[in-house]
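Milestone M4 deliverable, item 7.
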Amino acid sequence: MSELNRRKFLTYVGTGITAMTVASTGLSALAPTAEASGKKAAAHLFGFKRKVSGLNFTPIQPTDQDDLVLPRGFKYDVVAAYGDVINKKGDTFGYNNDFTLFFPIQGSSERGLLWVNHEYTSELWVTGPKEKDGKYTKEQIQKLLYNQGGSIIEVYRDENGTWKMDPNSTYARRITGLTPMKLTGAAKGSAAVGGANTVQGTFANCSGGQTLWNTVLSAEENYEDTANDAGLNETHYGWIVEVDPFNEKFEPRKHTALGRFHHENSAMGLSNDGRVVVYMGDDKTDACVYKFISKNKYIVSRKQANSDLLEEGTLYAADMKKGKWIALTIEAVREKAKDKQDLLEKFKTQADVLVNAHEAALLLGATPTDRPEDVEISPFDKTVFIAHTNNANHGNIHGHITRFIEANDDLGSLTFDFEIFAAGGRQSGFSAPDNLTFDSEGNLWTVTDISSSSLNKGVHSVFKNNGVFVIPSMGKNQGEAFQFASAPVEAELTGPCFTKDETTLFMAVQHPGEGTEDVNKPTSMWPHRKGDNQPRPAVVAITGFKY
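Output delivered:
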């Protein structure tokens, strides 16, 4: 019987410290049985009738074509693009779409609501340039704020198998930088946020996640420029926002207990004792990885009322050197800062810790890392995957994907181990991993985020345009990357999300032609709509999966 290496063995035996202990014994005979039980253990998360996307495609080669290039047998439908009318009210689809999340209507995989984040705008295509005084006009600020936030659209697959948006939907609406939001948690009404209980809008919405009670969590990332341009209080942004796509009466809210930083996304799970755990990345060089553990336990029958679990609990940051989660509490911060008067003045309450979470984390010894972006919990073994996109300051040009292994396979544990699951570079074929999602075969789907200024240049030349890669987290091909898609010119592909039966993959195409300087000479014209005069960010539905 062939001997298994340690990393492959971990994927067979299951998870965590138990897996690591067994791996050291070399009991390779356990592999087949354990792998099967791992898949069975996650079946409830995918549904009994869920089909498998898997690796049933011929990987494509890197390309610099101005199109969304897919393997043979697959096609994409443009479901909604910037400026499209989404409802009878006349609301329009925002700019630079990112995270997508499909909510089935009556359990259908062919009709549902699609939540879509809108991250930032463009002076060239949306607002126009600033006035001579370096400021936007009132009308420009309205455009700036309206075209960020999120869109709720209703989508369906017609009799010909084509995905379309339903502009007559009664659910479709916009959540924007103008929408009133309430604050929850310790920072609500505090001096740290200027005494605010409610704030104006959400913007810089990057990735996100889904709650156990079927609402969306949208992550505010690089908020500074928009806040400054619109004359808004910066402390009101950089939070995790919760929205119920089906219920307009559910007041959008920002959960301050989850901390304020450059949120990339959120990934929710349960501790072994039933408390809600939310993992989060801070998309900035030398930033930390976080998780929040609720004080109270999740109760299924409470449905959306479980939202209050995100109002009270403990925020932690990862110390990767010691393998420990550090609690970010005002007591710990003040003890650490006891000889530094400036910090004692800055950190007086728990609200101050939450508003300045990054600084508090570093002060308490959390590990600065290489742009931790998307974080996802494996539904098969509860290990936690983190896309560290890159950090040129440390020579990590192409990034890597880290895998956290919580002690006792418990998401509520305060100790962990970790490994580098996959590293970007020529040897793997991908660079700058960003958003992540799993399919029911245990494959990790990742999109890449090579900056437009670096695409097809220097050490990034070999990768050509940004793409989508499938990386098995289990089995013989574990850790190997297979390219599934290539983005249009200067675009990145974001927010991959499968329908329940895995017959459709939704994805956003963000900032095609981002390097354009002259509107008459766009560097991309994707999605190549007849009669159009500009490139447009859009959401697509990819079909063609064979089973």
